[in-house]
Amino acid sequence: MKIMVLNGSPKRDGSDCMHMTRAFLEGMNSISQNEVHILPVIDRHIEYCKGCLTCMRNGGNCVIDDDMRSILEEILESDLLLFSFPLYGFAMPAPLKALLDRTLPLGKMDMRKVGDRYEHVEQRDFSHLRYIMICGCGFPNAKGNFEGLLRQWRLMFGPDALAITVPEAPMFNAPEAASVTGPFLELVKQAGREYAERGAVTAETLEKLAVPMIPDEVYASIVNGEAGV
Ligand SMILES: Cc1cc2nc3c(=O)[nH]c(=O)nc-3n(C[C@H](O)[C@H](O)[C@H](O)COP(=O)(O)O)c2cc1C
Questions:
Q1: Cβ(7) – ligand 1 distance below 6 Å
Q2: Topology at the third CATH level for domain 2-223
């Protein structure tokens, strides 16, 4: 399987979230070897969509000549898009959102009704693509933090697209926290294995992944400098 990782952290390989992404991929690759390409989004030249909608009327050619041309082709050649990024302002970081906006040439202006919503009709075939999000954040809360992002994710990629959202993510880059991040990353690896085996992560593993690594008050007090990890 061809996996394209869209690393939306400006910290590139030093990203907290990439610790989870690498563990997930390790789990997947332990079942069967995949071809993985990691794209550090921040390093690519991706201009903002101009909103001209030319691409939706001319067969999918964007008027902007930048890296998005090759990125779109690579997206279409992939089987799985893995979005790895930190939560910024309850949403995805701007460079990644700019990339998503620039996938507009995949659809044409024509609309069709699906259930009670409308969507654009494709002008390139991306029906084979599957989507995963791995997103970490700095607060200890999942509630009151990830809801907006998850709503957008489901609207864009459907109810079955896997989303792993993890609070307390800066701990992944704290060697002192290895006693709690190590077992958590093993769970993420397990999720990767399950995804490779059955195309989904079991409810049991998702439930375990939803448990904070350490209690919220302890995490907050560490951040506030009141205790050592
Ligand atoms: C501009 C900015 C906005 C952020 N917004 C949020 C937020 O809305 N909620 C939250 O819990 N953490 C927020 N954070 C914290 C990051 O999500 C957190 O530090 C994360 O672990 C960084 O992951 P990375 O190392 O993969 O980039 C924000 C950080 C930055 C720099």
A1: no
A2: Rossmann fold (3.40.50)
